[in-house]
Amino acid sequence: MVTGDPEVAERLRMLRAYGEERKNLSRIEGVNSRLDELQAAILRVKLRHLDEWLAARRRLAEIYAAELAGTPLILPVTSPGARHAYHLYVVRAAERDALQAHLHERGIGTSVHYPGPVHLQPAYARLGHGRGSFPEAERSSREVLSLPLYPELRDDEVQHVVTAIRSFFS
Fold it and tell me: What is the extent of the structural domain holding 2?
């Protein structure tokens, strides 16, 4: 899209990214529409590696699951008859922020994806759902933490993450 109108340009930028005015703050209802031609060309090449990368992610997720069993974390669960892609490895921790800081101090990057529940985003205020309307969504948004997970992640790096998490809980 091309426009000389700054207001139209800003609205289009927000519309293509969940209606976000800035990261994790949706001002208007939007969509996920950020794929351009260059990204599509790269994706076409990367698709040849999809099965291999998914297998690597699943293997790493199995290591996390085995090594983090017995910790206070709530780990991802795969429904019977389904296969998880593990685009992210998201755990839940009651003390999420302290755990994230602990991991950061040890050089481990983590992310909090969607720290605010959808019903509390300004874009959806017209629906009338205030704080407390969806307590589980609100609790989840306070607890979720994405651990490092990508196909090239080495086993010793996963072990470093696991060791740091276990040290937090000991």
Answer: 1-34
